[in-house]
């Protein structure tokens, strides 16, 4: 059993906003252990040049590996090119999320459930669910 997890870094999001990419930058990974432990390892390893990664969400899936995740991620989301942005230090698993697509997805789900369809204020968990739903 593997776990797909989504992590965010406030410093990475600030850099993305300043660089004109997007403030909605997230790291997507897969681990065979606990997702919180994987985020701690990311912080220790200074992943993408940041040490302030926090877990936004995770989900258990059947036997996934890093290669399958990266291939699926490239098909479904906009991956930030590490060659074009050397600040992320070769990290191939940083995705840029469009806020309006996440909002549209949440509105659609709420409408189908018969609930109020106002535009919600996005939380990191909502974005993590959107990313995981799109690749899992």
Task: Write structural notes for this entry.
- With 136 residues, the protein is an alpha+beta fold.
- It has one domain (2-135).
- It is 43% helix and 20% strand.
- The protein has 5 helices and 5 strands; from the N terminus they run βαβαβαββαα.
- A 5-stranded antiparallel β-sheet has the order 3-1-2-5-4, sandwiched between helices.
Poorly predicted runs are none
State Rg: 15 Å
Which strand-content bin applies to the residues?
15-25%
Helical run tally:
5
The arrangement of helices and strands along the chain is EHEHEHEEHH
Estimate the global geometry from the Cα principal axes.
globular
Specify the biggest β-sheet.
5 strands, antiparallel
The total count of strands amounts to 5
* Strand ordering within the main sheet: 3-1-2-5-4
The rounded distance between the terminal residues' Cα atoms is 13 Å
Number of domains: 1
Helix content: 40-55%
The helix-and-strand class reads alpha+beta
Mean pLDDT, nearest integer? 92
């Amino acid at each position: 059993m593997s776990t797909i997890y989504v992590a965010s870094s406030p410093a990475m999001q600030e850099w993305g906003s300043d660089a004109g990419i997007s403030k909605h930058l997230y790291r997507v990974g897969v681990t065979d252990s606990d997702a919180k432990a994987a985020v701690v390892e990311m912080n220790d390893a200074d992943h993408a040049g940041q040490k302030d990664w926090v877990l936004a969400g995770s989900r258990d899936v059947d036997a996934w590996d890093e290669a399958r995740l990266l291939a699926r991620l490239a098909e479904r989301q906009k991956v930030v090119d590490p060659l074009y942005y050397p600040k992320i230090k070769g990290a191939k698993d940083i995705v840029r999320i469009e806020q309006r697509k996440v909002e549209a997805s949440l509105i659609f789900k709420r409408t189908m459930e018969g609930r109020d369809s106002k535009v919600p204020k996005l939380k990191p968990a909502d974005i993590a669910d959107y990313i995981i739903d799109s690749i899992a």
